[in-house]
Amino acid sequence: MTDLSQWKAKLKTTPQLGCFITFASPAITEFTAQIGFDFTLIDNEHGCMNQETVEDMVRASQCANVPAIVRIPYNRAELGRRALDFGANGIQIPLIDTKLNAEEVASYSHFEPNGKRGVAFLTRAANYGMTINKKSYLEQANENNLVVIHIETVEALNNLDEILAVDGIDVLFVGPGDLAISMGYADNPNDKKVIQTINSTLQKISDAGKIAGTYVNDSERAKQVIDCGAKYIVTSLNHFMINGAKDFLAKSRVS
Prior knowledge:
Radius of gyration: 18 Å
Order of helices and strands: HEHEHEHEHHEHHEHHEHEH
Oligomer: single chain
Strand order of the largest sheet: 1-2-3-4-5-6-7-8
Number of strands: 8
Shape: globular
Low-confidence stretches: none
C-alpha cells in the first residue's frame, strides 16, 4: 500500500483540509480525493454503507494517494479495530464525553504495549500476510494511525481537561451540530455563544499540545478556526453541490 505516514506529521504543523464522504461510493470517494483534499473522512456513522463498501472507499482514496479516515458509528472496539484492519489511515469516534470513553478508544486503537488492539497479520493493513517484519508493522501502526475523538456535548466540555490528559488520542474534533444542540441552540446552531464556545475549545485543545479539529461550511469559517489553532478541518461536498446546483438552476431557468 502507498506510504501515507508523513501526513500525520503534517497535521502537527500545517492545517489539513478534509472532506466528509456520506455516500456509499468508492467512485465518489476517488473523485473527492482527486479534487485536492488532504484527506477523506468516510462517514460510517451517518452514511448508509456496509463494511465491504467502506473498505473499497478507503482503497479508492488511498489509490489517489490521499489518506482515508473512517468515522465509526459508536465507541465500540470491534468497529474501530475492523476499520484499522482493512487499512484506514485512522478512525474517528463520535460522542466521547469522559476520560474513560477516551481511554477505551486509545486502548483498542493501539497494539501492545500502547493498547489492547488485537493482532492479525492476514489483514489488508498488514499486506494480507505478506508483511515480513511483523514487529515493525505493529510499531508503525501505533505511530502512524490517526485517532480522532469528538468533543460535542456540554458533558465533554466539562470533562475536557481530563480527556486532554489521555495518551493515544491525536485529534479532538469539536462537532458544531451536536454541540449546539447540547447547549440548547438546536434552532440557532450559529448563535454567537456557540461559535465562541467552539473557538475557545479549539484554542484550548491546541494550547494543550493536541491537534484541534472541527467542521466548516465555507472558507471564511475555515480561516477563523485556523486562527483558533485548528489543523484538522473538514467540510463536505453536499454543501457545495446543493448551493452550486441551486445557483445554476436559479440563474438558468427562463421565467
